[in-house]
Amino acid sequence: MTVIPESELEFRFYRAGGPGGQNVNKVSTAVQMRFDVMNSPSLREPVRQRLMKLAGSRLTLDGVILITAVRHRTQERNRADAIERLQAMVDEASIAPTYRVPTRPTRASKERRLQAKSGRSAIKSGRGRPEMD
């Protein structure tokens, strides 16, 4: 698990819409967090590549991830929410994908399958009406 130090994060606060009463027009509670993935010394190269793919539309052309947090009514909670969301993305990118190794069925398993098929066929053909001679 890779932990991103706060020194690599850049925060910008602005006024958010939504609930908040009179405070909504006075207090800058919304947070826009920037994280420079391309130049981050705390990420290994494979994690960096997976994180950039995971970020999708939140990634700018410069290789910076932008996360906007406006869920809460306080600046501190929005800041913590943005950090949590980035950490969740980094944790997901830290898990290397497991690749399936293709295998082939053995000759014995093929024969067992064919015998089972012919056995089922015999059972089903025996269910019909008896033939009149």
In short:
The chain has 3 helices and 3 strands, in the order E-E-H-E-H-H. It has helices at 45-55, 75-94, 107-125; strands spanning 9-14, 30-36, 64-69.
Describe this structure in words.
This protein has a domain at 6-94: Double Stranded RNA Binding Domain. The protein is 38% helix and 14% strand. The protein contains 3 helices and 3 strands; from the N terminus they run E-E-H-E-H-H. The chain has helices spanning 45-55, 75-94, 107-125; strands at 9-14, 30-36, 64-69. The radius of gyration is 29 Å and the shape is elongated.
- The portion of residues assigned to helices is 25-40%
With helices defined by DSSP (H or I, 4 residues minimum), what is the helix count? 3
Q: Count the strands?
A: 3
Approximately what portion of the residues adopt beta-strand conformation? 5-15%
Structural class: alpha+beta
Task: Give helix and strand order, one letter per element, not per position.
Answer: EEHEHH
**First-last Cα distance:** 77 Å
Gyration radius, rounded: 29 Å
CATH-defined architecture of the domain at 6-94:
2-Layer Sandwich
- The general outline is elongated
CATH class (first level) name of the domain at 6-94: Alpha Beta
- Specify the oligomeric state: single chain
Unreliable stretches (pLDDT < 50, length at least 5) are: none
**Strands of the largest sheet, in order across it?**
1-2-3
Mean pLDDT: 88
Biggest sheet features: 3 strands, antiparallel
According to CATH, the fold-level topology of the domain at 6-94 is Double Stranded RNA Binding Domain
